[in-house]
Design brief:
The chain is α+β, with helices and mostly antiparallel strands and 339 residues long. It contains eleven helices and five strands, in the order H-H-H-H-H-H-H-H-E-H-E-E-H-H-E-E.
Length: 339
């Protein structure tokens, strides 16, 4: 009867390894074999000092805590929740020693608490990410519409260019120099409201780039760019805005942090490479970044790190590739997305 406690032990280990494999954070097979091997060794060692029930429940608590802590290495958890979980495990272990006849039921309760705690963390994380993503998508959707409106205004002005010339010629032929100057001043004001820089072949990309690069130039950042892509892209407008917007925003932000007389520049290249959308953004920086793993990006970079995480999410969504390099005073991001 006492060996029924092996059931919740197997449940905890198998479920924990399933989550580790799902997140692709650790070598699941090696971790699983190590836990099983250590558990077997501990079982025969403790058998000299504890009863079968106490031995198995102790191993269940130990395995539960080990698997739980492994999962928490990559999913941050509050100290209060961690304390309550460890306290619950300790309390259940104590009760199993005091009331050995109920150790079977207590062991199943331990595995149940583990499953509830882990699922609660997953649901909370998913809920938070869904809310954050929905909110950010609303903002980005609004931004896309704004820059598209700017771009359409610019195209409308270019379309009317011939009519403007005809009107100016008429004023000049009628010797209406004052009226011609006034009309030119109006056109100049209208043109200054929209600064067309990029014509990549894709309307949405042009809208995003012209909006972002114009602002960077106003902030005294030297811009060099080249963009040529197909008219239609597989990436959605929202994701394109997230990706390009964050890449350029992060590059400009790094330039703005340079306080000395070092050059401030952003180099942008977007094109097609081997049936993939290739994006390269290089910028000057005064930061020395030696660590670019997920934990560093998401927890130690503030708003900049949040932007890096959003970039990663888009790249992962389209099964793309991203490479970041930090050279002396230059930071480079390269992205490849399937077309």
């Amino acid at each position: 009867m006492e060996y029924y406690i092996l059931v919740p032990i197997f449940i905890v280990i198998i479920y924990g390894l399933f989550l580790l494999d799902k997140n692709k954070k650790l070598n699941t097979i090696m971790i699983g074999l190590a836990i099983i091997a250590i558990t077997l060794i501990a079982f025969f060692v403790l058998l000299k000092y504890l009863t079968i029930s106490e031995n198995l429940v102790t191993l269940l608590v130990a395995d539960t805590l080990v698997v739980f802590c492994l999962l928490r290495l990559y999913h941050k958890i509050t100290f209060i929740f961690l304390f309550l979980f460890i306290f619950s495990m300790g309390l259940l272990l104590f009760l199993s020693y005091e009331f050995q006849e109920t150790s079977i039921y207590i062991s199943f309760l331990i595995s149940t608490i583990f499953l509830l705690a882990e699922n609660n963390q997953i649901l909370m994380k998913k809920s938070y990410e869904d809310i954050a993503t929905e909110y950010q998508n609303k903002i980005l959707d609004k931004q896309v519409k704004e820059v598209q409106n700017i771009y359409l205004t610019m195209r409308s002005w270019r379309h009317d260019y011939h009519n403007h010339l005809q009107k100016l010629k008429a004023h000049i032929m009628m010797d209406q120099i004052k009226e011609a100057n006034e009309y030119l001043n109006e056109l100049e004001i209208d043109l200054d409201s929209v600064n067309q820089l990029v014509e990549s072949g894709n309307v949405n990309l042009d809208a995003i780039l012209n909006s972002k690069l114009s602002l960077a130039i106003k902030n005294n950042v030297e811009i060099k760019y080249k963009a040529k892509v197909p008219e239609k892209l597989t990436i959605s407008d929202i994701d394109l805005c997230v990706l390009i917007g964050n890449l350029i925003d992060n590059a400009v932000e790094a330039c703005e942090k340079i306080k000395d007389k070092s050059p401030k520049f952003v180099r942008l290249y977007i094109g097609v490479f081997k049936q993939q959308l290739y994006i390269s953004v290089a910028n000057s920086t005064n930061e020395i970044i030696r660590k670019l793993d997920d934990e560093y990006i998401t927890t130690k970079r503030g708003n900049h790190g949040h932007g890096l995480k959003r970039i990663n999410n888009v790249v992962d969504k389209y099964s793309g590739f991203i490479n970041r390099q930090n050279e002396p005073k230059v930071f480079v991001s390269e992205v490849l997305l399937p077309l």
